[in-house]
Design goal:
heterodimer, A: alpha/beta, D-Maltodextrin-Binding Protein, domain 2, 2 domains, B: alpha+beta, MetI-like fold, four-stranded antiparallel sheet, two-stranded antiparallel sheet, globular
C-alpha cells in the first residue's frame, strides 16, 4: 500500500504534462482497453473469481462503458485499489475511470480534482455486529472496538457520530474489506462499519451470516458514484451518459434481451429511438457512433438487470432496491433524459 | 585553419590530461544531475498545476476529523492534522525506542549464546537466527499479529493475573499509577540516588587508580538507584494508587493498555532485528584476538573481569558501527506498521491525512523529512557513542 502510494507520487513526478490533459477517450480507443479502478474485492460489487475474472455491480458498469467506447465489454483492465490509493491511481493516469463504491462529496469533487458522473447506488453507513452481544441500537455502542477502513468517508462519519452522541470507541484501522472481514471474524473488533451495501456483502461472506446483523441506524448519506479526472470534459460526458443510458433503459423498458430488437428499427417511443440511435445521432455529440448505448445495454443489461444479477434479493447479498428503485417505482434513481 | 588546429589541440590536451579530464567529467555529471532534478521538479509543478492543485501546507491546521486509537498526549477528531502528525511521530518514536531496547537485549543474548560451547544451545540459536533472518519482516509482523489476535481470549474470557492484569485479543490491560503529592519525596530520593551513583563511580575509579582497591560498584549503584527510593516509597506510605482496569460493556476501561498492534509490531521488529544483531555481536567477539584473553589471564585477571575489561571494550569497536545501521533499519521498518493498523507516521500524515486532504506531494515530503530526521538523530547518537568507545591510540 505504501509502495503503491510512493509509486503513484513517482509516477506523478515523471509523467509528462501531455498525458494529464489529452483526450482520455482517444487514449482509451488507441489503447484498445479501458482501465477501470475498482476495489480489491467487495463481493457483489467488484471481486475477482477463482479464474481471475472480475464480476459485480461496479464491474458491469465498467464493462458497459468499455462496450460503448470500444465496442467490446471484455476489453477492460481492472485496477484494484484500496480506499487510500483509489484517487491517486485515477489522478496519476493509472486508471481512466473509478467505479469503486466511492461516496460523492464536495471536497473530493473540488479539492481532490475529480469529476463525479452521477450516482449508481444510494447508500448509507451502517454497523455490522454479532447477534449474541444483544445490542439493538447504534446508540448502545459506547466503548466498542470498531473496525474501519482508512481513507474513507465512513471513517469521518464514525468519528462525528460517536463524538456527537457522547460515546467513546476504539478505532481499529484496516486497509481493505478482506482485512476487515478477517479482523471482525477474529473478534478483534465488536463492530464493523462501512456502507450498508458493503456490510451486506461482508455478512454474506462470513462463516455463519445468520449470527450477525446490521443495526437499524444508518448514520450518513453515502451516494456512491463513478468519477473521472477533472479537466477532461469530453471523457466525463461519454462516461456520464453511459451511466444515464443504463438508468434510463430501465424506465424505457429496454433490456439486454430486447435491445437488439429495439435497435433494429425505429419504434414508436422517440426516447428509445434517440437513445438507441435509430433517430438522430446522439452518439456523435459525445464522440461515439450511433450504437453506443445499444452496446452498453447489450453487455450487461439495464440498471435493474445489473442490480438483480449482482446484489439483488436472489443473490447472496440479498439487497432490496429500496431508495435505489427507479423514480417511477417510488425510488430516487433518476437520470437526465437523452435528447 | 591555424586557429581551428589550435582549438583542437587545446581540447585534446585537456582531454588527455588525466586530472583535467576528471574535472571535466565531474562538471558534466553534476550539470546532468541538476538538469534531471530540475526536469523532475518542473514536471511535478506543471502536473500539479495542470490538475489545478496548488502547493500548500495550510491543510495541516484544519481539523483532522479522524480518530487514532493510541495516543500518548490527548487527541480527538477535532484536533488538527498537525497534531495527528505529532501523534504519529510519537507512536513511531515509541516503537523505535522500545524496539531498539528489546532488540539489543535479545540480540546480545543470542550472540553470546551462539558462541556457547554447548552444542545444543549453539545449534538451536543458529537455527533460530537463520529462520528469522531469512523471512521478510512483513511476514513476521503479520504472523505475530495473527497469533495475538486469533489465540488470545475475548475480553469476557480474559486471562487475568491477580485480577488487575488482563490479557485479551483487544490488548494487554494493566493498572495505571496515580501519583499522590507525597510521591515528590520518592522522586527526590531517586534523583539523589542517581547523582550519588555518578559521583561514586568516579570516586571508585580514582581510588582504584591510586590504590588498586576495588569497590563493588554495581551493588552499591543498584542500592542507591533502586533500593533507596523503594525504601523511601514505603516510608512515605506508598503514595501511588493504582487504577485497575474493569470490564465494562464491550471492553476494559481504565488503567493502561498495550494494544495488540503495538505488541505485534514491537515483538516482530525486535526479534527480526535481534537476529541480525546477534550475528554482529558474535562477529565482534570473535574479532577480539585470543591472545588478548590469554594475556589477561597471564596477568591474573579472572574470566569475568577479562570479559568486562578486555573483551567487551574491544568487541564494541567492531559491533557499534553495524549496530547503528540495524537500529536505523528497525526504525525504518516500523513504517510497515500500517499493514496491521498501527498508527505511526505513515498511517497518520502519510496515510489518512494524505487521503482525506488529497495532498500527496506535501504529505510525502513531510513523511520523508521525518524519517530523515529520525535516522540522522539515531546516527548522530550512535556516532557519538562510537567515538567515545573507540580505541584510544597512544
Amino acid at each position: 500500500m505504501r509502495v503503491t502510494q510512493i509509486a503513484a507520487v513517482a509516477a506523478a513526478l515523471t509523467m509528462t504534462t501531455m498525458t494529464a490533459q489529452a483526450g482520455t477517450l482517444q487514449d482509451v480507443q488507441a489503447r484498445g482497453e479501458l482501465n477501470c479502478v475498482v476495489s480489491t474485492g467487495v463481493a457483489g460489487f467488484a471481486a475477482p473469481d477463482d479464474n481471475g475474472q472480475w464480476s459485480g455491480f461496479d464491474v458491469d458498469f465498467c464493462r458497459a462503458t468499455a462496450a460503448a467506447v470500444l465496442g467490446d465489454g471484455s476489453k477492460v483492465k481492472f485496477v484494484p485499489s484500496t480506499g487510500k490509493t483509489r484517487f491517486t491511481l485515477l489522478n496519476s493516469g493509472e486508471g481512466d475511470i473509478l467505479y469503486r463504491n466511492t461516496t460523492v462529496t464536495m471536497s473530493r469533487d473540488a479539492d481532490l480534482k475529480l469529476t463525479f458522473l452521477g450516482v449508481n447506488y444510494y447508500d448509507g453507513q451502517g454497523f455490522l455486529i454479532r447477534k449474541e452481544l444483544g445490542i439493538n441500537s447504534a446508540k448502545d455502542l459506547d466503548g466498542a472496538s470498531v473496525c474501519i477502513q482508512t481513507g474513507t468517508t465512513t471513517e469521518l462519519n464514525l468519528a462525528d457520530y460517536f463524538r456527537v452522541n457522547g460515546m467513546s470507541y476504539e478505532p481499529v484501522p484496516i486497509e481493505t474489506n478482506e482485512e476487515g472481514i478477517t479482523q471482525y471474524s477474529a473478534n478483534r473488533c465488536d463492530v464493523y462499519t462501512t456502507d450498508a451495501s458493503g456490510l451486506a456483502s461482508t455478512r454474506a461472506a462470513l462463516d455463519d451470516p445468520s449470527a450477525h446483523m446490521v443495526l437499524p441506524e444508518i448514520i450518513s448519506k453515502e451516494p456512491l458514484g463513478p468519477a473521472v479526472r477533472q479537466g477532461d470534459d469530453e471523457w466525463a460526458d461519454v462516461t456520464r451518459w453511459v451511466l444515464n443510458a443504463l438508468i434510463n433503459a430501465e424506465t424505457l423498458g429496454v433490456t439486454k434481451a430486447n435491445v437488439a430488437e429495439h435497435a433494429a428499427a425505429a419504434g414508436d417511443n422517440p426516447s428509445v429511438n434517440r437513445m438507441l440511435g435509430t433517430e438522430g445521432d446522439m452518439g456523435a455529440m459525445i464522440g461515439l457512433d450511433k450504437q453506443w448505448a445499444v452496446r452498453a445495454i447489450a453487455h450487461a443489461g439495464n440498471y435493474a438487470e445489473i442490480f438483480e444479477a449482482n446484489v439483488g434479493p436472489d443473490t447472496p447479498l440479498g439487497l432490496e432496491r429500496g431508495i435505489n428503485a427507479s423514480w417511477v417505482d417510488g425510488g430516487i434513481l433518476y437520470a437526465a433524459p437523452i435528447r | 585553419m591555424e586557429s581551428v588546429e589550435q582549438k583542437r589541440n587545446i581540447i585534446s590536451t585537456l582531454w588527455n590530461d588525466k586530472e583535467k579530464r576528471a574535472v571535466i567529467i565531474q562538471i558534466f555529471s553534476i550539470a546532468g544531475l541538476f538538469a534531471l532534478v530540475w526536469f523532475m521538479i518542473g514536471n511535478a509543478i506543471s502536473n500539479l498545476d495542470a490538475l489545478g492543485k496548488g502547493f500548500s501546507f495550510d491543510f495541516l491546521f484544519q481539523p483532522a476529523s479522524y480518530d487514532i486509537n493510541q495516543h500518548l498526549i490527548s487527541y480527538t477528531s477535532r484536533d488538527t492534522h498537525l497534531r495527528a502528525t505529532i501523534i504519529g511521530i510519537m507512536n513511531t518514536a515509541m516503537i523505535a525506542v522500545a524496539g531498539i531496547i528489546l532488540a539489543t537485549v535479545v540480540g546480545f543474548t543470542l550472540g553470546v549464546l551462539r558462541l556457547s560451547k554447548n552444542f545444543l544451545i549453539n545449534r538451536i540459536v543458529y537455527i533460530y537466527i537463520e529462520y528469522i533472518r531469512n523471512v521478510p519482516v512483513l511476514l513476521h509482523i503479520l504472523l505475530v499479529h495473527g497469533v495475538v489476535v486469533h489465540s488470545l481470549p475475548n475480553p469476557k474470557a480474559a486471562m487475568t493475573f491477580n485480577d488487575s492484569f488482563f490479557l485479551t485479543k483487544r490488548g494487554f490491560f494493566m493498572p495505571s499509577p496515580d501519583f499522590e503529592s507525597a510521591m515528590t519525596v520518592v522522586w527526590i530520593a531517586l534523583a539523589i540516588g542517581i547523582a550519588f551513583t555518578f559521583w561514586f563511580r568516579r570516586y571508585a575509579k580514582r581510588v582504584q587508580d591510586e590504590t588498586g582497591k576495588i569497590f563493588p560498584v554495581f551493588l552499591i549503584s543498584f542500592g542507591a538507584v533502586v533500593i533507596f527510593p523503594v525504601l523511601v516509597y514505603f516510608l512515605a506510605g506508598s503514595p501511588i494508587t493504582w487504577e485497575i482496569p474493569v470490564l465494562k460493556g464491550f471492553n476494559f476501561k481504565g488503567g493502561m493498555v498495550v494494544r495488540p498492534e503495538f505488541l505485534a509490531l514491537w515483538l516482530a521488529l525486535s526479534l527480526y532485528t535481534a537476529a541480525f544483531i546477534a550475528e554482529i555481536v558474535r562477529a565482534g567477539i570473535i574479532a577480539v584476538s585470543h591472545g588478548q584473553t590469554e594475556a589477561a589471564y597471564a596477568l591474573g585477571l579472572r574470566p569475568g573481569r577479562t570479559t568486562q575489561l578486555i573483551v567487551i571494550p574491544q568487541a564494541l569497536r567492531v559491533i557499534v558501527p553495524p549496530l547503528t545501521s540495524q537500529y536505523l533499519n528497525l526504525t525504518k521498518n516500523s513504517s510497515l506498521a500500517i499493514a496491521i493498523g498501527y498508527m505511526d507516521i505513515v498511517a497518520t500524515i502519510g496515510g489518512i491525512s494524505l487521503n482525506q486532504t488529497g495532498r500527496e506531494m506535501e504529505c510525502m515530503i513531510i513523511v520523508l523529512a521525518l524519517y530523515l530526521i529520525f535516522s540522522l538523530s539515531i546516527s548522530s547518537v550512535m556516532n557519538w557513542y562510537n567515538k567515545r568507545i573507540k580505541l584510544v591510540e597512544r
